Amino acid sequence: MNAPAAPATMPHVMNTYGRLPLALSHGRGCWVWDTQGRKYLDGLGGIAVNTLGHGHPKLVPALQEQVARLIHCSNYYEVPLQEQLASRLCEISGLAAAFFCNSGLEANEGALKIARKWGHDRGIERPEIIVYEKAFHGRSIATLSATGNPKVQQGFEPLVEGFVRVPLNDFAAVEQVARTNPNVAAVFLEVIQGEGGINATRTDYLRQLRRLCDDKGWLLMLDEVQCGLGRTGKWFAHQWAGIVPDVMPLAKGLGSGVPIGAIVVGEKARHVLGPGNHGTTFGGNPLAMRAGVETLRIMEEDGLLAHAAAVGEVLHGALKADLAGEKGVVEFRGQGLMVGIELDRPCGVLVQRAADAGLMISVTADRVVRLLPPLILSADEARQIAAILCPLIKAFLAEPRP
Ligand SMILES: *Cc1c(COP(=O)(O)O)cnc(C)c1O
After folding, report:
1. Whose CA is nearest to atom 8 of ligand 1?
2. Where are the domains of the chain?
3. Considering only CA atoms, which of 68, 77, 111 is closest in space to residue 290?
């Protein structure tokens, strides 16, 4: 199927999104304004990117200063801000080193390269990576192949080989692969699946995976691109399980809106890639690094981990209280400021209706209303999100099904 016609107002932009017919002009805190002057409460945070909301008074001057000082210089030279951000990421993760890139798919692409090289270094000629149903890892050829959504893959075959797919939270399925497939080099999964519908990996399952990876000499690679960076109330979602991964791709929230990605690795995976094995022109540039350093600094200074957990409770509580007993609501999912409400039918129309009512949301996996607000969301704003969203969901569920 081809996408619908490009919006009349953007005829020269390739039409790869179903966009709402509105354009945002500026933002402040958790609020954004469109070019018509209408105001919206930002329940989406640019898809888990705007960690500090919009126009943050501590971030803006730091980035302005950095833009005036140095934006880019290439990786031919040492970039002290890379070391600053890498050492901070290692401190908060317990890992050992980082590689910087520009996006989530790039971080994941690098992780896949590490997994394959890890396999080759161990004499596995055709290394394979265990991946998951409903996973999302990006839209490059390799990361869409690792993704567990046929819609993302369709039309782009042949897919990259070397992936074995299993269902989430089914440890017997992974054990089965371990018994029968000698080529496995790594397990690769999101701690909470984002695009797949806010599906949490169970903590006991994560611990089982950690032990299995240790036993088998596999790398445990946790895609924290969406669920990481404080969203669940800890720096990284896997920390709720008390485990440490070997490889952790990051992106989205790390730069508060400035494009950035990172592969953070533990001791085990630290020396898999060497000089000449991987690179990037833009990755690790001073502007993006400064955005990362300042984002982590401000998160710490302002106590945003505890804040995200507390306001997340308020948000989940308000949504549940208002939607309690609604027959069409299948399940509330998520943790902290990563929220999914699964309905019993496709509900993409709610995105426009919410915008009309002054709220930014998304719908993912066809029937899951998703909220990923900035981590600076106040308790009052959390209640406002519920107050706008719940009546829309109820009215929608009361309509006859098409
Ligand atoms: C968004 C996302 C990606 C892809 O990130 P891009 O920056 O869009 O390439 C990868 N993995 C997860 C879990 C994501 O949510």
Report:
1. 104
2. 24-56+303-398, 70-301
3. 68
What pTM, to 2 d.p., does this model score? 0.97
Say what percent of the chain tops pLDDT 70. 98
Q: Which residue reads 């208002």 in tokens?
A: 322
Q: Looking at the domain that runs over 70-301, which CATH code has it been given?
A: 3.40.640.10
The CATH code for residues 24-56+303-398 is: 3.90.1150.10
Q: What is the DSSP string of 242-257?
A: T---SEEEE-GGGGTT
- Which residue's CA lies nearest to atom 10 of ligand 1? 137
Q: Show the DSSP H helices in 70-146 as ranges.
A: 80-93, 104-121, 141-146
Ligand 1 center to residue 40 CA distance, Å? 24
Q: 200 forms bridges with which residues in the sheet?
A: 192
- Residue-wise pLDDT for 250-261, tens only, equals 999 999 999 999
> What local confidence, expressed as pLDDT, does residue 1 receive?
39
Gap between the Cα atoms of 156 and 145, Å rounded: 9
In this structure, the residues whose C-beta lies within 6 A of any atom of ligand 1 are 103-105, 108, 136-138, 190, 194-195, 223, 225-226, 251-252
